[in-house]
Amino acid sequence: MSLDRRKFLKYLGMAGAAAGTSLLVSEGMKTKEKGVGPTVAEAQTAPQKHSADVKPGELDSYYGFWSGGHSGEVRILGLPSMRDLKRISVFNMDVGTGYGITNESKAMLKGKFCGDTHHVHGSYNNGVYDGKYLFVNDKLNNRVARIRCDYMEVDKILDVPNIQGMHGLFTQRAPKTEWLVCNSEFQIPVPNSNPSQPPAQYNGAHTIIDAEKMEVVCQVLMDENMDLAATDYGGRYSMTTSYNIEKGVTVSEMLGSDYDYMLVFHWDRIKKALKDGKHTMIGGVKVLDGRAGKSDLTIRIKVPKNPHGINVSPDGKYAVCSGKVAPTCTVVAIDKLEDVFNGKIKPEDCIVAQPFIGLGPLHTTFDGRGNAITSVFIDSTNVKWNVQKAIDNEKLPEEKKKNTHIVDVLDVNYQVGHIMATMAETKEADGKWLVSLNKFSKDRFLNVGPLKNECEQLIDITGDKLKLVHDSATYIEPHDCIIVRRDIIEKVVKDRFNMFEHPQAVTKSGVDRKGKKVTVKLTANAPVFGLQEVQLKKGDEVTVIVTNHDEISDLGHGFALSNYNINFVVAPFQTKSVTFTADKPGVYWAYCTNFCHALHLEMRMRFIVT
Amino acid sequence: MKNFVVLFVIFVFSTVAFAGKPKFLEHRYEYKLEDVLKADKYEKKDRYWEAYTGGKLVGYVLLSKDWTPQHVGYAAKHMETLVGFDTKGAITGVKIIFHAEPIVLIGLKEENYDNFIKQYMGKSILQSMSVGNEIKMDAITGATVTAVVQNAIIAESAKKVAGMAGLIKYAEQKGHKLSKKFDALGWKELMDSGGVKNILVTQEEIGQPGGKDPYIDLYYGLVAPPSIGKNVLGERTYTEVMESLKPGESAVFIFSNGPGSFKGSGFARGGVFERFNIEQDDRSYVFTDKDYKILTEVAAKGAPPLKEGGIFIIRAKDFDQSKSFKLKLIIGYRAGNEKKFKPAVSDYKLPDKFMEQ
């Protein structure tokens, strides 16, 4: 493909000129240009306060759940303030909370402290988040973690076999989340036991996971690689883009074909195939054959080569594949997919539009008012376009040439990856705010050395124009986020009321010794630990169990043991444990690291190793 | 009847473990019933003692943990209190027999606590007793949680015993049912109806230069009647709050604007809201952070601005929403460098229109 960038910019100029006659650019824009007040759209859709200025004591309107990229974590931000509310340790080690240090977290992590989180998605009920779980993938070690939203803590981690480059994760949207899917971007030998297998025999796999049990339901073996994933609003399909149908192992090989695919997986047929026993067991999981010509589980829709994101419009009608290498988006009508599966129409027949977007379209989000907003990496813009207009223009070549589907283009700073609008991955997309997750920050913040933070930008999308309102600096390196209305989450989040959720909760402090194995049970109750000293012998294998007995909300305690490289935090009524070998004789102070009391500094005790 | 009770505190220290807490944190004192009311004979009744001198009933003695164990102080522990009062309801003595209040941390001594307690001598338990009004905080200024909770313990325990002993007669008013009917009411109608009440303290009232500008402009009311709660909180918050209530629990909303704060910031560590409480008959209801849900928006049309707000749950089942109650505030402010408190009281009686007719 080739495209004259100047010509494109000229198009946009024309689009701007044409806007006056367009239905999409209303009177409001004119009044705004005169600076006399908010746009009509704003006035209509936001009768209440719509401001990014969240004053002291005020709460945000949205929870934002961010992946943390190769930091391995998930973050919670408040929107529109973009305040960083919490980091949830997922696949990483966090010396602050002790995640990766405590026995409880080690049992989930199994020694793997590197992670690369890409996509956070919530559990759904009838197309809207139910506030029960968040799921996130680890592209690096091929795991899926589940976060329970009441405590905002990881409760399960599932290792997924037979795949590498676990990219793309999405949850079932209807009727409720029983399944979630994830993809493999890197094709490998399946099973991965024969390293000399030629790349032509490598495979990808689309993995289906039981959300409640956190077990692999099955994998659908594919020739293609798969990166981004989506599900429809009917509980019938999962979808993904593939950019390496060539099975290339070098960049140029991966770019070899003129086209690639959007792939669709038919869930009822998958269920039936499992019931009929059409699977084989590989790596301990059921594997169905989804390769072309091998089964009727999948269809392949040709899209311009090397596409990227796939997103479904909130009305459930369209899947939009962003072009990446192509300057277009491909709009697929979801209600036509069944006819493709049944052979009534050709896969290409379900493509209803292929509008021009810009150079490097990556991901698309929606405002719930019929508009899509696509991130454009090379141009470094967010492009707002009207989906129906793009579809209509397919039959109007002159209109299509003038790009009248484009409503507005906003420069972002710089080089955007994912974007996400408020509630956009639900059928209650509300078109209030958009976040542009930019990969470069360059000159947007004080220079902090060669490794700079990312720049995430908050954009007001209530008007016709995209309006940049805030820059937010971010540490390595969120890929994606979802933005969830506050009322859905805030009624779910709670403090711990039951101390005995942990079977080893300590009610009485003391020391149990069985030979060299010593268990130190500690209550923590501000400002004292339940013991003042513990006598150990060099070589003892020591397990310290700490239960926080303070009932007061927010009153956490830390347990740190000097020179033994141990620290963790226990929230009220929480229990955590750590095991270490007392290999250094001497006196070692353990102390509370999490500020708890005016006598917090005095909250300490001795471990005496003789 | 054994009239001499001695309690020993034994801290068991060993090289490995110790039971209890270091001495500065927990204070337990020996006591005798005569410490709070002199008599020659004490007769144990159900959870209190009758005191007799020369065969004549002279008063009553009670241990607070038998009556108000739910009131816990800054240390999340009940301050066990021995209270005596005579047959006319005048307090004859108060003695703290156990507390874990960290008053030492704010530069106070045990004798400050004792001085606070001393002011109860002679006060009538039949009258209102609230901190900032009849009860002064001067002796333990700063320990507001301790003062408010300690007062609730003494006043409520004593009133309960007085009720039991027949000193206080309550008009038997059977609780009315709240109306389930919903009328869409704007802010003015809510205020006019009495379903929402206001407490206004101006700058000038606390000697500040702001004149008639509010120092605190506070609004409150019962959540449960749909015509109040749903209009004030909005349908969603109303439903969430009502669904979260267990049988017998009640909820009030409070919000305010102006530079003053009814929540304060002290509740964060102690968990107790020390600047306000609700009183009904002889009972006092103090709130902790476990009874609290933040309120950030008021839905009613024409409502004043909200700077801070909360929904507070009265856990006790003995609160009757159809009967009158008081909201008592202690409004903290600074006069120069001096910390001062101004009390304010507001009466609330759910108007008939919000009850079943």
UniProtKB/TrEMBL annotation, chain A:
- Which pathway? Nitrogen metabolism; nitrate reduction (denitrification); dinitrogen from nitrate: step 4/4
Q: Which cofactor does it need?
A: Cu cation; Ca(2+)
PROSITE patterns, per this entry? COX2_CUA (PS50857), TAT (PS51318)
EC number(s) given by UniProt: 1.7.2.4
* InterPro entries per the UniProt record, alphabetical: CcO_II-like_C, Cupredoxin, EfeO_Cupredoxin, N2O_reductase_N, NO_Rdtase, Nos_propeller, NOS_propeller_2, NosZ/Cyto_c_oxidase_sub2
Localization recorded for this chain is: Periplasm
Organism for this UniProt entry:
Candidatus Magnetominusculus xianensis
Q: What is annotated about its quaternary structure and interactions?
A: Homodimer.
Quote the function comment for this protein: Nitrous-oxide reductase is part of a bacterial respiratory system which is activated under anaerobic conditions in the presence of nitrate or nitrous oxide.
Superkingdom is Bacteria
Where is the Cytochrome oxidase subunit II copper A binding domain positioned along the sequence?
515-610
Gene3D superfamilies (alphabetical): Cupredoxins - blue copper proteins, YVTN repeat-like/Quinoprotein amine dehydrogenase
GO terms for molecular function, please?
Answer: nitrous-oxide reductase activity
Protein family membership: In the C-terminal section; belongs to the cytochrome c oxidase subunit 2 family.
Reaction catalyzed:
N2 + 2 Fe(III)-[cytochrome c] + H2O = nitrous oxide + 2 Fe(II)-[cytochrome c] + 2 H(+)
**Which NCBIfam families is this protein grouped with?**
nitrous_NosZ_RR, TAT_signal_seq
Q: Which UniProt keywords apply?
A: Calcium, Copper, Metal-binding, Oxidoreductase, Periplasm, Signal
Protein name (Swiss-Prot/TrEMBL): Nitrous-oxide reductase
Automatic annotation (TrEMBL), chain B:
Asked if the record carries the keyword Electron transport, the reply is no
Q: Where in the cell is it found?
A: Cell membrane
Provide the alphabetized UniProt keywords: Cell membrane, Membrane
FMN-binding domain: from which residue to which, for each copy? 73-161
Q: Which InterPro entries match?
A: FMN-bd, NosR_regulator
Q: Supply the SMART domains for this chain.
A: FMN_bind (SM00900)
From the Swiss-Prot or TrEMBL record, give the protein name. Answer: FMN-binding protein
Q: Which organism is it from?
A: Candidatus Magnetominusculus xianensis
